[in-house]
């Protein structure tokens, strides 16, 4: 549970109160009552909370020393800018960003999200039985949320079970947009830092320069296979091993299926792999619905130009009981997320501050009045 504590320097900032959770200090707005810590990750500690003004349950994520690593700071900024524009029932909602006391020197960032119960990774590794209806409903919601993102010109680029939040009645929301990019971003390079390897599309493993929305479809296919089999389909130990596992299951590729590879060394490597006849998905997942197997096979296609699109996947017969194209509006406008990768700490901090002001118009007015007096 959260333990109330005194402020570290003995000076209590107006509108804030202080709690200790997992040996970490939380300096949060007084309207939020922390309940208990619920998660710890590479980017901070998350606690459940209640907004006393609205009685709404929320999750508060503290990103400690947010500017210590410039790449991580850019990742946080990217998520803030994106989530302000994204509004879909299958995408996590960012409810608030707490205003720090000092504009030019704050180090920690507190993000307030809608509260969810668990994530798909926890469900897959649990002993809970997953019926065809469960798999179908989870996949449907993931595809719906992804179609919305793609209509907004957004590639998520890091879809995996841990980034899909679930609540008690099986509602699913996509989260973690720190690696997302607009489809037309100028800097389209990929590094080992980007995209969890097990869910990484072949074109990324092969360092192809051009890629698009089909990278997310591949990740969805890997997640769907994991739902059906309760274990990762391609758990590679490193990049080359990942490619070998893919070829072992999909089978050796024909010449026309590797034409998309623009890196001669990468193409040579694929050709050098021992022949594999492949492993039929029906044999891997004998209890799966035949239509589920058919859709999975259309997602996990080596050549991205031949992979099914999200829109096509939603219209697949497996999705027919759930999908209604009339209830599937696209994003209002495409989003431009052109952030300079070379931004320094001070500029990133200033841009984060401006994002925070969108959630606190009263602070924006105070700042405007202050500058008017100057």
UniProtKB/TrEMBL annotation:
A Pfam family reported for this protein in Swiss-Prot or TrEMBL: Pkinase
Record domain Protein kinase: where: 32-319
Record-linked InterPro entries: Kinase-like_dom_sf, MAP_kinase_CS, MAPK, Prot_kinase_dom, Protein_kinase_ATP_BS, Ser/Thr_kinase_AS
An annotated Gene Ontology molecular function: MAP kinase activity
Keyword set, alphabetical order: ATP-binding, Kinase, Magnesium, Nucleotide-binding, Phosphoprotein, Serine/threonine-protein kinase, Transferase
SUPFAM superfamilies according to UniProt: Protein kinase-like (PK-like) (SSF56112)
Activity regulation (UniProt): Activated by threonine and tyrosine phosphorylation.
Record-listed E.C. numbers: 2.7.11.24
Catalysed reactions, semicolon-separated: L-threonyl-[protein] + ATP = O-phospho-L-threonyl-[protein] + ADP + H(+); L-seryl-[protein] + ATP = O-phospho-L-seryl-[protein] + ADP + H(+)
CDD domains associated with the record: STKc_TEY_MAPK (cd07858)
Residues given in the record as ATP binding sites: 62
Cofactor(s) listed: Mg(2+)
Family according to the record: Belongs to the protein kinase superfamily. CMGC Ser/Thr protein kinase family. MAP kinase subfamily. Belongs to the protein kinase superfamily. Ser/Thr protein kinase family. MAP kinase subfamily.
PANTHER family (UniProt xref): MITOGEN-ACTIVATED PROTEIN KINASE
Record note on quaternary structure: Interacts with MKK3.
Protein name: Mitogen-activated protein kinase
Organism: Mucuna pruriens
Lineage summary: Eukaryota, Viridiplantae, Streptophyta, Embryophyta, Tracheophyta
Gene that produces this protein: NTF3
